[in-house]
Design goal:
By secondary structure, the chain is α+β, with helices and mostly antiparallel strands. The chain is built from five helices and eight strands. The protein has one domain: 3-Layer(aba) Sandwich (Chemotaxis protein chec).
């Protein structure tokens, strides 16, 4: 499970070092894909494949499912950690997430999220302000 928040720096070649705490859990192939909220998702290839398979089970004639599947697969890359524990992000993915230099690396359960540090700070601040209301709504609906 991935937990915590770490600050890292993207190098000039588009490489990002993942936190040492996460590296042991990220063995083999990884997939980096566009995520919701303007971040990138990093998952094991197996976890990503299971997610895409769930999307592919849906009706291909429903334009909503085609749109969601295209969003998560276009631009996605399969990669591995290099010997220094880094992943290389393509220009397309870096542009999508607005990653230039300072990157917030966020553990989110079964995946890692990569955020521009300033974007993460703004998002996290807004979430903190609303979390009481959101958890109350989810509890009242029986989800929490």
């Amino acid at each position: 499970m991935f937990l915590g928040e770490y600050q890292h720096t993207l190098d000039a070649k588009g490489r990002l070092s993942l936190p040492a705490k996460f590296r042991g859990q990220m063995t083999g192939s990884l997939v980096v894909a566009k995520g919701l909220g303007g971040c990138l998702y990093v998952q094991s290839a197996e976890e990503y494949q299971a997610f895409i398979e769930r999307l592919m089970e849906q009706d291909d004639f429903d334009p909503r499912f085609r749109q969601v599947r295209r969003f998560f697969t276009s631009g996605a890359i399969e990669t591995e950690l290099d010997s220094a524990g880094r992943i290389t992000l393509t220009p397309v993915l870096r542009e999508f997430a607005g990653l230039d230099r300072d990157v917030a690396v966020i553990g989110n359960g079964n995946r890692i999220e990569l955020w521009d540090s300033a974007t993460w700070a703004a998002y996290n601040g807004e979430t903190t302000e609303r979390i009481e209301d959101v958890t109350k709504e989810l509890a009242e609906s029986g989800i929490l």
